[in-house]
Amino acid sequence: GAVVSQHPSRVICKSGTSVKIECRSLDFQATTMFWYRQFPKQSLMLMATSNEGSKATYEQGVEKDKFLINHASLTLSTLTVTSAHPEDSSFYICSATTSGRADTQYFGPGTRLTVL
Amino acid sequence: GENVEQHPSTLSVQEGDSAVIKCTYSDSASNYFPWYKQELGKGPQLIIDIRSNVGEKKDQRIAVTLNKTAKHFSLHITETQPEDSAVYFCAPTGANSKLTFGKGITLSVRP
């Protein structure tokens, strides 16, 4: 149980284009979803927290107009990197929690974004 | 905010030996203490967690111990196997349910 998927697993795009990443909870309803970014050999850094039907809460230093988050249902959240640049190249990982255990996060497999 | 440190940064053990990884934190309000395992190119996987009302928890070869007074908790892996090789993150959590990840420890199990 508690499986989270992400799509795509890898994406390569040109500088200036936008990329959408999907995060789905497959066998549970996710009350809250989180988006993280991880650079090579570094730890995970929280970007934003989203609750279904509400606006996302962004961490300090994360541009909300550049990283658009939509959490339209209890099983799907999307992250759109707008006008991507090479410095946005990173490993993006989502996680989700259930209402029963709000602090236990189940992570997706991650999406490797490369911006040329 | 929470300050999380993991020691050591790398650990190499012989297959079959035990490994202990320690995590120290600063926020006395933290009440949930998970350990995550991350293999190369994959997302973190929750392997064991403990809450502040418990001092120790065990799941087969893996155990976690918590010392709230000293503000540290440790991951114990017994009878290590090559497939235990990975990066291990602690992520103590406070009332806001936000995980604060440590920098991670790279565990290498030599066959």
Structure, briefly:
Helix content of chain A is 0%, strand content 51%. By secondary structure, chain A is an all-beta fold. In chain B, the strands form 2 sheets. Chain B has a 5-stranded antiparallel beta sheet with strand order 1-3-8-7-6, with no helix packed on it. Chain B has a 5-stranded mixed beta sheet with strand order 2-10-9-4-5, with no helix packed on it.
Describe the structure.
- The complex is a heterodimer of chains A (116) and B (111).
- Chain A is 0% helix and 51% strand.
- Chain A contains no helices and eleven strands.
- Chain A has strands spanning 4-7, 10-13, 19-25, 32-38, 45-51, 57-58, 67-73, 76-81, 90-97, 106-107, 111-115.
- In chain A, strands 2, 4, 5, 6, 9, 10 and 11 form a seven-stranded mixed β-sheet that branches. A four-stranded antiparallel β-sheet of chain A has the order 1-3-8-7, with no helix packed on it.
- In chain A, a hairpin with a 2-residue loop joins strand 7 and strand 8.
- The relative contact order of chain A is 0.33.
- Chain B has strands at 4-7, 10-14, 19-25, 32-38, 45-51, 56-59, 62-67, 72-77, 86-90, 105-110.
- The termini of chain B are far apart.
- The model of chain B has no long low-confidence stretch (mean pLDDT 93).
- Chain A binds chain B through residues 4, 6, 32, 34, 42-46, 49, 93, 95, 97, 102-110, 112, and chain B through 32, 34, 36, 41-46, 49, 89, 93, 97-99, 101-104.
What structural keywords apply?
heterodimer, A: 116 residues, mainly beta, seven-stranded mixed beta sheet, 0% helix, B: 111 residues
Oligomer: heterodimer
Q: Biggest sheet of chain B, open or closed, and with what strands and sense?
A: 5 strands, antiparallel
Low-confidence runs of at least 5 consecutive residues of chain B:
none
Q: Say how many strands of chain B there are.
A: 10
Low-confidence runs of chain A (pLDDT<50, min 5 residues)? none
Assign an overall shape of chain B: globular
What is the strand content of chain B? over 45%
Average of pLDDT of chain B: 93
User: How large, in whole angstroms, is the Cα Rg of chain A?
Assistant: 13 Å
Apparent shape of chain A? globular
Please compute the radius of gyration of chain B using only Cα atoms: 13 Å
Largest sheet of chain A: 7 strands, mixed
The helicity of chain A comes to: under 10%
- For the termini of chain B, the CA-CA separation is 40 Å
How many DSSP helices of chain B? 0
Structural class of chain B: mainly beta
